[in-house]
Amino acid sequence: MVVYTGAETRAVLNTSHPHNKVGLLDLEINRLSKVLFLLTMGLSFVLIALKGFNGVWYIYLFRFALLFSYIIPIGLRVNLDMGKLAYSWMMMRDPQIPGTLVRTSTIPEELGRIQYIFTDKTGTLTQNEMTLKKLHTGKLAYTKETFPEIGEHLRRHDPTLHGGGGD
Question: 0.70 exceeded by the pTM?
């Protein structure tokens, strides 16, 4: 009998490690902090080069980096987290959406970044009748009054279309 309990067994291969979910705002702030850190170190290095690399130059590099460290907004992260906390609390106490429970701070921050909403419904209450009331393509908005005009335009450019179009 051979028993193998290594990393290539089915039990180990089927387990997945949980992924950390990070919001886009956190990623942008991390990227900004890295850029500002590089700017701070570059500026410190430029000032050391202008002063000259004589003596213990690395102490001056540390001094300049410490002086320019105020360029990196550490308090920004704290303020944004406090704002996320306040926004989550307000969402949970909103009387228009009762029973809302916010379990993560990334969802409220991502609500402002919604670009597309696709909907589908099962038809349980409406007998599968969907009525198109408005079509917005990003730059133009079409309403019920402009649907016949759109249908005519489509029939002119695609001869395979036939029917009432837009009614």
Answer: no
